[in-house]
Specification:
With about 300 residues, the protein is an alpha/beta fold. The protein has helices spanning about 15-20, 45-50, 70-75, 100-110, 145-150, 165-170, 185-190, 220-240, 245-260, 265-280, 285-295; strands at about 1-10, 30-35, 55-60, 85-90, 95, 115-125, 135, 140, 160-165, 195-210. α1 links the parallel β1 and β2 (about 30-35).
Length: about 300
């Protein structure tokens, strides 16, 4: 069976999330709702949907999301049963009615061949009146290529549209970055475990971008910059081998840029970059890095 985990905090759009779950044409899933000590109690709303789909609800006493959102994801996942596949659905996102149906129809195609399945998506605004285009994907795609399609602005990616194996999650876990910014990006690079991502393009997850969401807010840029710096350093150390040579070169430069957005580069940062340039590339990129270092210390 499929587990759908909802790390709950905001009530404003939550009914649309629940309504989409109750409308699923295939009910072979269980929902686990973990309340992150929210001041907005969803109990009355949940009573309305009791019996319409299988769910369990737990209200945690301490707010963990303000400290580490990815750790709140972890404790919600720990609340699940013996399901082998997990979707983490935002409390303001919602599903097409045939998401679960298509999951089982495609199951034999991806089972034992991948650790990550994703759906097509559509972004929606606060009142569903500023929808953007649908985003679809290659049926099979390397996690590294998927990430770089996003870097090039050819696609989007977030947490809700992915389903991942509990086996792979147990092996790698989520990396805790500020605001969980890039925690999902790192997860797909890790959880894929060098297998391709399988995509189901015939159904959509609707992902909401609003002033309530981390992506939509603009008063948290410093934390996002810090998260980006940490993320790029981690993939340079842990995941560089899954990228091709051009992608590696781009990642090194992106790490350098991420540091500059957050702080001044220190000598140890330059030594780390220079070592990777020298190890992975010919002399020209290496000397360009040296030149940028010399300019920075003038």
């Amino acid at each position: 069976m499929l587990a759908i985990v909802i790390p709950y905090y905001k009530l404003f759009f939550f009914e649309e999330t629940l309504k989409s779950l109750s409308s699923q044409t295939d009910k072979r899933f269980k929902v686990y709702i973990g309340n992150d000590a929210s001041p907005e109690n969803p109990s009355l709303l949940l009573e309305k949907y009791t019996g319409k789909f299988d769910f369990s609800y737990q209200s945690f006493q301490n707010n963990l999301g303000s400290i580490s959102l990815s750790q709140h994801w972890d404790r919600c996942i720990a609340f699940t049963g013996d399901e082998k596949w997990i979707m983490i659905l935002g409390d303001d996102d919602y599903l097409d009615k045939n998401i679960v149906k298509l999951w089982y129809e495609n199951f034999d195609e991806f089972n034992n061949k991948t650790h990550i399945v994703r759906y097509a998506t559509k972004r929606v605004g606060e009142r569903n009146n500023n929808n953007t285009n649908f985003y679809t994907h290659p049926v099979l795609e390397k996690a590294s290529d998927s990430y770089f399609r996003r870097v090039r602005g050819e696609t989007r990616s977030s947490l809700s549209e992915y389903v991942f194996s509990k086996e792979s999650y147990s092996k790698y876990g989520f990396k805790s970055y500020p605001l969980a910014w890039h925690s999902d990006d790192k997860a797909w690079l890790d959880f894929s475990d060098k297998k391709s991502i399988y995509s189901i393009n015939e159904s959509n997850v609707f992902v909401r971008i609003s002033d309530f969401s981390i992506s939509g807010k603009t008063d948290n840029e410093d934390l996002k910059h810090k998260a980006s710096e940490d993320f790029y350093k981690d993939i340079l150390i842990q995941n560089l081998d899954i990228f091709d040579k051009n992608q590696r070169l781009h990642l090194l430069f992106m790490y350098e840029v991420a540091i500059k957005k957050n702080r001044n580069l220190k000598l140890k940062d330059w030594l780390f970059l220079i070592k990777l340039y020298l190890k992975n590339f010919k002399i020209v990129p290496f000397f360009k890095c040296i030149r940028r270092f010399l300019i920075s210390v003038k």
